[in-house]
Amino acid sequence: MAKRFFVGRVSKPPSDIVKHALSSLRDDLRLFEYDIDGTEAHNIMLAEQGINTVRDCATILYWLEQARNLFREGRFPLDESLEDVHTAIEHFVVSKAGIGYGGRLHAGRSRNDQVAVDIRMYVRDEIIEVSRTLLELVESLSGRSKEFVYAVMPGYTHLQHAQVTTFAHFLTSYCYPLLRNVERLLEAFRRVNRCPLGASALAGTSLPLNRERVAELLGFDGIITHSVDASSSRDFMCEVASILSLIALDLSKMSEDLVTWSTHEFGFIELADELCSTSSVMPQKRNPDALELVRAMCAEVVSSAYSLHLMLSKLPSGYMRDLQLTKPPLWRAIDSVKQVLQVMKEAVETLTVNVDRMREASLANYANAVDLAEALVMECGLGFREAHAAVGKLVKQLSTEGRAIHQLSSEELSGRLSEILGKKIRVGSDLAQLLSNPLKLVERRRVLGGPSPQSVERMLEEISSQKTTLLQEVEKREKRIGQAKQALQRIVREYLERYAVGEGS
Ligand code: ARG
């Protein structure tokens, strides 16, 4: 067990049971290198401000780099009696460099602002990665859409036939919300990318810190000014978790659609074998397990965001240890969303489409009824409500006879409608023919955002240009963080070279 190097007024160490409950070491592993970066930036500033000597700083930086190397090699000593990653790293430096050097590393800092800076640095990287993965899924969806601009299918509301549409129109419908979520993530990035260091435990420090300098060294866009806000606000975590849950809702809907359309009853699409599994007893089974798990994982993401909100809902101001447990739900939400995005990308790229079956189903159950009503408005001068009522009555008659609208000749259609409306209606043979041709019906729906091949192609262009702009935004942020990381590493190397510190120094 590590020797405790800060005891304060608590004279007894926690019991084994309590220690286990208290430690966040396991959950902190993904923060390890961010913690090193944060501590390096803080210590460079402490030296620049003359709070520690440059020699102190060089020694501390040397041992921090050693810790980083050991961690990368999987050899860093992780001792659960050490509460968290911040303590473990400080303990390592103190034990290697001695309290004379290592004991200076934490000046002007608290684990409260320290954990906040680590989470912010980690989350901003994840925002970039999730955004990239989202844009890749949009790319796959729009790529597949291009193949199916003419593939007619029924569109559903209430899972009942509504209007004829195309498979491309459906696939593109997923792109817009996904793009909006990239926008949301990038907006949240602005608020995440602010540096809390210098806030200390709650109310700042009397040491002459330069907060802006630390923020700059770590690639932040500035500081979180107020020390209470900086050390204990977690709204940025809730914001990101909420966006992740919006993404999960999109993906859950998409998986639900694909599962439904791949059933024998629909038979519109077939999922690749790689996404299915069979039954241990029924050899004929091809179950869409991957997409079912996607649905469940999406639910988990939503519940993670919810638990995060609940944990915060009863807290007073200032840091509380409860905040430690806000990390795992956010980690879970991030991991699940990334995994789900990849599964959905594979599903979209590999699915096969039964265009004949889709076309066959496209006019079933009177999916052309609105088209008829609209034609009566445009071609016979009826008001829409009048046309709606007449077609409603016609469909009622036909459904008892087991016939479809497009099975009626123009004469029969004219006769029935005239009788229903109590006035002469003439339906031309071209209209009667049109009603039996789903592609023609779709081609008439040229309204912006509609399913006509023209409108879908226009949307595909819009999706592609939005995707390019957003990708540039993502890359800009990624580049800025990368440059800050490199610059920080350069400064660390300069210190190490100039002061030739090493083991035994
Ligand atoms: N392990 C803590 C966390 O994850 C770090 C901050 C500890 N601060 C404290 N005052 N005990 O939140």
Task: Give an account of the 3D structure.
Helix 3 crosses helix 20. The chain is built from 20 helices and 4 strands. Helices cover 65% and strands 3% of the residues. The radius of gyration is 31 Å and the shape is elongated. The chain starts with 15 loop residues before the first helix and ends in a 6-residue tail after the last helix. A two-stranded antiparallel ribbon has the order 1-2. The protein folds into 3 domains: 92 residues, Fumarase C, Chain B, domain 1 (Orthogonal Bundle), CATH 1.10.275; 280 residues, Fumarase C, Chain A, domain 2 (Up-down Bundle); 71 residues, Orthogonal Bundle (Ribonucleotide Reductase Protein R1, domain 1), CATH 1.10.40.30. Bound molecules: arginine. Arginine binds next to helix 7. Arginine (ARG) binds next to helix 7.
Uncertain regions spanning at least 5 consecutive residues: none
Instruction: Give the names of the bound compounds.
Output: arginine
Per CATH, the superfamily of the largest domain is Fumarase/aspartase (Central domain)
Tell me the number of strands. Answer: 4
What name is given to the CATH topology of the largest domain? Answer: Fumarase C, Chain A, domain 2
Number of domains: 3
Which structural category do the helix and sheet elements fall into? mainly alpha
The largest sheet has its strands arranged as: 1-2
Query: How many helical elements?
Result: 20
Spatial shape: elongated
In whole angstroms, the N-to-C terminal distance is 26 Å
